[in-house]
Every structure is written in structure tokens, then in C-alpha cells.
Amino acid sequence: MIKYKTAEEIEIMREAALVVSRTLGEIAKVIGPGVTGKELDILAEDYIRSQGAVPGFKGLYDCPSTVLVSVNDQVVHGLPSDIPFKEGDVVSVDCGAVWKEYYGDHAYTFQIGEVKPEVKQLLKVTLECLYLGIEEAKAGNRIGDIGFAIQQHAEKHGYGVVRDLVGHGLGRTLHEEPQVPNYGRRGRGKKIQDGLTIAIEPMINMGTEKVVQLDDNWTIVTEDGMPSAHFEHDIAVVNGKPEILSTFQYVEEALANKS
Ligand code: MG
Ligand code: MG
Q1: Which pLDDT tens digit goes with each residue over 65-114?
Q2: If you measure from the C-alpha of residue 168 to the centroid of ligand 1, how many angstroms do you get, rounded to a whole number?
Q3: Which ligand number lies closest to the CA of residue 198?
Q4: For burial by CB atoms within 10 Å, which of 17, 25, 43, 186 has the most?
Q5: Residues 201 and 231 sit within 8 Å (Cβ to Cβ)
Q6: This prediction's pTM
């Protein structure tokens, strides 16, 4: 059953999302060559707690960390490690926070130093996929329209759209109904209406769409070892239109100040 949210609930969810947005902004300030995922994890937990919120992933499904850090061919669910990032890496940082009992959940893929042009292009197209998907999250459309838009754009560029992991409803629990696949058919799936709150999160691979899980039972990697990108926003449908509750503004400001 989909739990549609009231205007009051959506305002709390916006605050929850913004805790995560600011956390990603703090990460953007420091991420670079030589930095480790474990360092980002400590930073994220400290920052979230300093805001009076609680890490959203840590302890949920036995997740050991506040952020999930997925490097290069790691698609999502990478566990923070002591291995320093190096020039040319791409690092997806996915973060969750609970604020007044509601979840925020969003992710950004960072470039470490100078990244190969074809990898840059993968990130650019994945970000475009995210916003094209969001545009479809409007009243009268169906969930399949979101996935259709994402899949069309990714496949136009020859990329693989991950099937095994999907976006999701968001609220008092991290994963609610409906599932929001990054692939789909126009006019299929649940109808979109006011009060729907979802996380849209394209996971786009440079090569095959196929993924495998590592022995740590967490990390998802591409089957062919090619890079993957992941961006995620939290959305509420308000007055028939998609409203983005999260923002990359803090990330973008931090990255602009570093360059
Ligand atoms: Mg999510
Ligand atoms: Mg996430």
C-alpha cells in the first residue's frame, strides 16, 4: 500500500532531505585524492548528529555505516573502506538521515581529480536521466513513465540500466511502496498523485546492465568491471507536480569553491 503524505509530512521530509543535502555538501568540501570512504563516513555521522538528526542507514538491514561509498565499477552499496581515492576515480556517496521520524535519502557521484572524458559523459547523462525521470513524476502519469524516460535517455547513449536495484517510496521507512524502476513502459504501473513521496535514483552503467554482489554481501559491482554512476533525489508530488525535496546546491557550491 502506498502511504500518501500530508503537506505537514512533506515539510518534515523536506527538512530530512536537506539534512542529507548538507551532509553531501560537507563531503564535497573534503573529497579528493587520498581521502578514504571511512573518513567520509565519520564526517557524515558527526554532521548528521550535529543537526539533531540520526544516520538513516546505520543499523538498518545491519548496515554498518552512515554512507555507502561506491567507487568506479561499484554501482551502489559499497562499504566505506580505508583505501584512499585516487585521481580519475568516480565515487558515488549515498546517504540517509532520519529527522522527526522521516527519512531523507540521496546520492551524488563525485569525480576525483581529472576523470576520463567518457566517464565524465556517463556522469552527465546519469544526472540528466535523474531530472528527466523527475519531470515524469506528475499527476496523471504512472510510475512506468519515470522509468521509461530514464531508460530511453540512458540507452540512447549505449549505457546499461541496472535492473536489480530500483528507486522507492520514502517516508517513515526508508523503502516503501511503490518501487520506482529506472526502466519501464509508458502508461504502466501505479498512478501518480498528490502526496506521493519517492526516491528516484538512476544507476547507469557504461557497459552491461548486469551486476553482481561481492562476498561482503553488500557491494554491488558491474559484471563487466566498467564504471557506473548513481544520482538520487527525494521527490514529493504537490499540486500535481514533482517537487524536489533534496538539493545538490550545497555540493555544487562546495565543488565550485574548490576549483
Ligand atoms: Mg534510495
Ligand atoms: Mg540512497
Answers
A1: 999 999 999 999 999 999 999 999 999 999 999 999 999 999 999 999 99
A2: 6
A3: 1
A4: 17
A5: yes
A6: 0.97
**170 Cβ neighbours under 8 A, 6+ residues apart:** 13, 103, 105, 176, 197, 198, 199, 234
Rounded to 5°, angle at Cα 19 from 15 and 21:
110
User: Which ligand places an atom closest to the C-alpha of 95?
Assistant: 2
Q: What is the whole-number distance in angstroms between the Cα of residue 114 and the centre of ligand 1?
A: 28
259 has a pLDDT exceeding 90: no
Residues with CB under 5 A from ligand 2 (ion): 94, 105, 107, 232
Q: How many angstroms is it from 88 CA to the middle of ligand 2?
A: 23
Give 168 Cα–ligand 2 centroid separation in angstroms. Answer: 10
Give 106 Cα–ligand 1 centroid separation in angstroms: 6
Contact (Cβ atoms closer than 8 angstroms) between residue 96 and residue 21: no
Conformational region of residue 100, where left means phi above 0, alpha means psi within -120 to 50, and beta covers everything else: left
pLDDT at 229 over 90: yes
Ligand 1: centre distance to CA 167 (Å):
6
Report CA(203)–ligand 1 centroid distance (Å): 11
Domain 7-258 in this protein, CATH class: alpha beta
Rg (CA), the chain: 17
Q: How far is the CA of 174 from the centre of ligand 1 (A)?
A: 7
| Residue 80 exposure: Cα atoms within 13 Å on the Cβ side | 22
pLDDT band for position 22 (50/70/90)?
very high
Q: Report the pLDDT value the prediction gives residue 248, as an integer from 0 to 100.
A: 98
Residue pair 165/203 in contact by the 8 Å Cβ criterion: yes
- Taking the C-alpha atoms of residue 239 and residue 230, their distance in angstroms, rounded to an integer, is 28
